[in-house]
Amino acid sequence: MRAGEIAGRPVVTLDTAEDIAEVKDVVFSHDHGYLVGFTLNKRGWLSGPMKETLDWSGVRALGPDAVMVASGDALAARDAESGATGDAEDVVGGRVITDSGRELGVVTDLVVEVDEQARVVGYEIGGATVEEGPGGDRRYIPLPETFAVSSSALIVPASVTGFIRDDLSGFGSAVDEFRAQLEQTS
Amino acid sequence: MDWVSWVVLAVAVLVIIFVVFALIQRRRRSGGIVVNRKGRRGR
After folding, report:
1. To which H or E segment does residue B16 belong?
2. Would you give the DSSP letter of residue B18?
3. At B38, is the secondary structure helix, strand, or coil?
4. Three-class SS state of A58
5. Does B27 touch chain A (CB under 8 A)?
6. Distance separating alpha carbons of residues A164 and A31, to the nearest angstrom
7. If you count Cβ atoms within 10 Å of the first and of the last residue's Cβ in chain A, which end, N or C, has fewer?
8. What values do phi and psi take at A121, rounded to 5?
9. Nearest to A90, CA basis, from B31, B27, B38, B34
10. Which of A38, A41, A51, A62 to mutate to test the interface with B (most CBs of B within 10 A)?
11. Which helix (H) or strand (E) holds A171?
12. pLDDT digit string (tens) for A24-58?
């Protein structure tokens, strides 16, 4: 799933089926790109951001239409880990460059794999350097298992160009193949 | 000014206040994908 799709989803409690908040920011850790939590908006078009945040450990399910939590207690006061603090940086717009010096595009979204944890496995890229194809002007590039998510330029191995996909179908296997190739060469 | 002008002026001021408030709220509500330098690894 794309991380950008999570923003705006309602946060619903399992105990009372109440719609208690709405996802504002999707917050990832700098190291290894784990999803650590969400900052929240109050419900309603004219209401503002909430002081509380939702830590990933409080999420029971991350569905296509809602983020499910056990109860309203899952929301906690904003902390340095799950909340977007003063150190938080926007990822979208960062340049993706291969180690051979070729610019692949700019980051437009993150591709997230969700199981026990939610983790970044790839970047959606766009921009002037991405040519229009059958799937539009967006491409998906897999990322190595160990990398740091950054808002500045992202350096990827040049071999990643062979694993770039036009859409998300089959992207999971592209990630596995790319990582297997990196392991073999290292 | 007659009372009609006062009413028109008052409505105009209220509309401007509402639009400014709505724009500020929209900006405050807009989210994104961020990286926290203090973030920890998963659960």
Report:
1. helix B3-29
2. H
3. coil
4. helix
5. no
6. 23
7. C
8. -115, -10
9. B34
10. A41
11. helix A171-185
12. 888 888 777 788 888 898 887 777 888 888 988 88
Residue type, A34: Y
Tell me the one-letter amino acid at A100: S
Rounded distance, CA A134 to CA A140, Å?
13
A166 three-state secondary structure: coil
- Cβ distance of B34 and A90 shorter than 8 Å: yes
Q: Do B28 and A48 touch (CB under 8 A)?
A: yes
Only one residue has tokens 């089926």, namely A17
Per DSSP, A155 falls in state E
**From the candidates B34, B41, B43, which should be mutated to test the interface with A, based on the most A CB atoms within 10 A?**
B34
Assembly ipTM = 0.70
pLDDT truncated to tens, each residue of chain A (186 aa)? 888 889 889 999 999 988 999 998 888 887 777 888 888 988 877 778 888 889 888 899 988 899 999 988 888 776 655 555 556 778 888 888 888 888 888 888 889 888 888 888 888 988 766 666 666 678 898 887 766 666 667 788 888 888 888 888 888 888 888 888 888 876
Give SS3 for B17.
helix
End-to-end CA distance of chain A: 29
Chain B hits for A32, Cβ within 8 Å: 41
Which amino acid is residue B40, in one-letter code? Answer: R
- B14 Cα to chain A: minimum distance (Å): 16
CATH number of A3-77: 2.30.30.240
